[in-house]
Amino acid sequence: MEVGGRRLKTRETMAVESVTQSGPPPRSRPTKTLFQNPKLPFTVALLFADAVLVFLIIAFVPYTKIDWDAYMSQVTGFLDGERDYRNLKGDTGPLVYPAGFLYIYSAFHYLTQGQVYPAQILFGVLYIINLAIVLAIYVKTDVLPWWGLCLLSLSKRLHSIFVLRLFNDCVAMMLLHAALLLILHRRWNLGLVVFSGAVSVKMNVLLYAPPLLLLMLKAMDIGGVLLALAGAALVQILLGLPFLVSHPVAYISRAFNLGRVFIHFWSVNFKFVPEPVFVSKGFAIFLLAVHLIALASFAHYRWCKHEGGLLNFLHSRYVLTRLRFALFFSTSSKKFGTSSSSSIKILTKEHIVTTMFVGNFIGIVCARSLHYQFYSWYFYTLPYLLWRTQYPTLLRLILFMGVELCWNIYPSNSLSSVLLFCLHLIILLGLWSAPPEYPYSENKPSSHKDK
User: Fold this and answer.
1) Is residue 377 in some structural domain?
2) CA dist 236 to 99, 108, 197, Å?
3) Burial class (CB in 10 A: 0-12, 13-18, 19+), 7
4) From residue 64, how far is each of 61, 166, 231 by CA, in Å?
5) According to the UniProt entry, what is the EC number of this protein (predicted)?
């Protein structure tokens, strides 16, 4: 309303504007195009060197038989027409992955005829593609020094997971990294579709869901958020349709079982916990509570600090949505829509990656059981997370090598699991104590970008 020629702001308008009133961002560094970035030649050389290493591993290191034959047995049942998840089984037990896994590994079965050596070559290519995507994310964020990119190729365990074990975790994480790269290019709808595809291969990708939802609320209005979520849900429905139509209960209960209890022997992170406690429901509830509290704390005090905290941010989004509906048919709706849309700014690439990687890492710290292949869930985030702390470089490298050491001790023991847990806590403490970056870019959104 206007009084004496001055426009007075309502409480709702002030709440909406409070989202971005935390002060001007620091002076941005001059941006460089991809081919002007000095890290580009180094990443190309790193990819080539790692491709040679992968070739040598496939040629000279014996393959380890674990899950590939079981995958092929499950896929064979699917290709033979079986649609009841209770009857899709392999050497290691019943199928427990969503339908996307079956489609992708059916394609692998067709390309390799179920043979191990062609599958290793295929997974070697998959490894290089995944590494290229991860390197693109790191180059776009420009958090690591050029030599720090080498850390992404120095894991003995990761090479083993990809080309000596052929786990489906590799496929899921490649799709997740591809989704993140799309989001960095502000292709939110397509990124959510690929993200949903990753979930359809293995559900650990859902650890990224809470921070992703928060970023969507920052980057889009409520209509855009609902549209992107609808696209992700549609992917799950379409992929699972043959099973949902024939045996829906069996599919949902087995493919999306969140209450699985893993075997204590294979735990890498909580081997020091006595087995009766490890398998107990109380321990699972405790870890879930810690997980949710840690996510809420980081969201309130770190990720939404510049918006006045999580509750203030959510309230402003609620007010904005209510005002949009209230003024939708009013004569001032066009003017309001223009002014309110300006309150939703472009997120910086560093804020997106930091929020996603930290949110996933919190889930890793609170996971009841991490098996050896689960290292792929967060290894590629470790260098980024370490350089987001304020620790000296030497300590960062010690933490990185310590985590890698723990994952290469087989079988895990109480000492190695305690050490891994402590290393995780030190990294998490460093992330908590680091100053949060300003989340918004000064650049204006382009009209052709996907919102």
Assistant:
1) yes
2) 8, 21, 8
3) exposed
4) 9, 9, 38
5) 2.4.1.258
Quote the pLDDT of residue 11: 47
Which portions of the chain are predicted below pLDDT 70? 1-36, 328-344, 443-451
Q: pTM for the whole thing?
A: 0.89
Encoding tokens for residue 117? 């050596």
> Rounded to an integer, what distance in angstroms lies between the CA atom of residue 246 and that of residue 370?
33
Decide: residue 254, CB within 10 A, 0-12 exposed, 13-18 middle, 19+ buried: buried
CA atoms within 13 A on the CB side of 141: 32
- Residues ≥6 apart with Cβ < 8 Å to 233: 196
Q: Do the beta carbons of residue 85 and residue 192 sit within 8 Å?
A: no
Q: What is residue 324's predicted lDDT score, i.e. its pLDDT?
A: 76
- pLDDT for the residue 344: 62
pLDDT value, residue 194: 98
Enter the tokens of residue 390: 């304020």
pLDDT for 38-88, tens place per residue? 788 999 999 999 999 999 999 999 999 889 999 999 999 999 999 999 999
In a domain, 27, yes or no: no
Structural domain contains residue 20? no
Number of folded domains that form the chain: 1
In eight-state DSSP terms, residue 35 is G
Per the CB < 8 A criterion, the answer to whether 199 and 205 are in contact is yes
* pLDDT on residue 54: 98
Q: Which domain holds residue 229?
A: 35-433
The DSSP-derived string for 170-209 is HHHHHHHHHHHHHHHTT-HHHHHHHHHHHHTT-GGGGGGH
Q: Tokens 């609902």 — which residue?
A: 226
Residue 378 — φ and ψ, nearest 5°? -145, 0
- Which H or E run includes 429? helix 414-433
Query: Is 8 contained in some domain?
Result: no
Q: 201: Cβ–Cβ under 8 A, 6 or more apart, which residues?
A: 97, 98, 100, 101, 104, 168, 171, 172, 175
